[in-house]
Amino acid sequence: MARLIYHSTRGVGQAVTAAEAxxxxxxxxxxxxxxxxxxxxxxxxxxxxxxxxxxxxVRVLQLFLTDFTEEELRQAVAVAYNSRFDTPEIAPVVxxxxxxxxxxFHGPTLAFKDMALxxxxxxxxxxxxxxxxxxxxxxxxxxxxxxxxxALEAFAGVEGTKIIVFFPEQGVSPVQKQQMVTQAGxxxxxxxxxxxFDDAQSSVKQLLTNKxxxxxxxxxxxxxSSANSINIGRLIPxxxxxxxxxxxxxxxxxxxxxxxxxxxxxxGNFGNILAGYYAKKMGLPVGALIxxxxxxxxxxxxxxxxxxxxxxxxxxxxxxxxxxxxSSNLERLLWQVCGKSSVLVTGLMQQLNTLGRYQISExxxxxxxxxxxxxxxxxxxxxxxxxxxxxxxxxxxxxxxxAYSVWEKYRQKTxxxxxxxxxxxxxxxxxxxxVMQAVNPKYADGEDFALFAEMEKMTGVPVPAxxxxxxxxxxxxxxxxxxxxxxxxxxxxxxx
Length: 496
Ligand SMILES: *Cc1c(COP(=O)(O)O)cnc(C)c1O
Known about the structure:
The protein is of the alpha/beta class and 496 residues long. It is built from 21 helices and 15 strands. It has a 6-stranded mixed β-sheet with strand order 3-4-14-9-10-13, sandwiched between helices. A 5-stranded parallel β-sheet has the order 8-5-6-7-15, with helices on both faces. Helix 3 crosses helix 4 (70-80) and helix 11 (232-251) packs across helix 12 (271-281). The chain starts with 5 loop residues before the first strand and ends with a helix.
């Protein structure tokens, strides 16, 4: 198989192997690693439909991670997608209210971040062996709520690694927060910040490329890496479930092999939906990629106008994992649609940095027709939760409800008859109060944990084992810092 290499979107420095890109997390020039070409998966769909999730994952991964052997990938996939998922299907597809829902929340932390993070430590371990790295890997993570816990779960207790997570103290759900601050493992640190996800992500990206800090780490035998979707090792495993969803829809008669299937994706940092775009470029018959935003609708405005403008009010919503104004992975899409010009991408990112906005050319805009942007207000999100619950007895989490609502509006507006998969990114049990309140205002005075039992009664879906009794677990991480103190905190933890 031809060797696939990775470039930085900002183009300074050497191309690297997949293993090197996965270990680095981000390129030294501040850009993101992208595969030089997106490989085609040419196996007939009917043949792929015979594979289970793990076998399919190996087929997809081996096209991108060409410096890993098939045997290595098989091993990594077998330990990642095991009984830590509460169903052997790993990612079930269910049909309700005219849509299919791809449930990506059956992993150990009840959010889609598990799909990639369950695998990442094994990929990193193998990557370290390949590159002859004998340093401790420090995973620096900014989270809007779900990445933090998924990364902690994945890296806690993993030899040769430390993990440090920064989350917005006021910007995550009570269940998300409790999941993180009760995390055991003496290689874990969890810190609340007085700021939002964008503050955390920007600081972390700066630290990851801070030469002085990197040199100080080097002396102590440590290197930084990232568990955020800026790491290409996060992105590639996410491609698998788009193929998986298509194949399951084919099997249940929802789509005929080769015909288009739309995907509606609740979007924040643009990592999930970008994986869908990569799947399409690999040859999967994807129709529209419906990029759904909450009230922080910087992306839906971008797809409508070609202007990305982060200088706007920031809202805390019931879908906190999408409360983001700087969508990092859009940089990878820009690279793809501007003719892979690192000069152009660097220019746009500089404008974003200095002016808070940029506008793309008409030519670039023409290459974005795979995407449809849309947004849902809080009211529309709650209505979607209530409607689906009343019609089908199926409970959506607020993120999934944003996507469902945006798809409904898209269908009404265009009259589209193309079947759709709504990518379901979290279990409603992570957002108990908002979800229950959406169904019935009488729950407005309830508390998240107290409402677990009510939710169980309403849905017949048992409270997931991983959050049962969560409220009474000891809080092990109490630290809170200002965004300007993030570097100090990191130095302190690492003894620099
Ligand atoms: C992270 C997350 C999203 C947003 O995904 P991106 O890849 O950042 O666009 C949506 N929903 C949930 C529940 C998430 O955890």
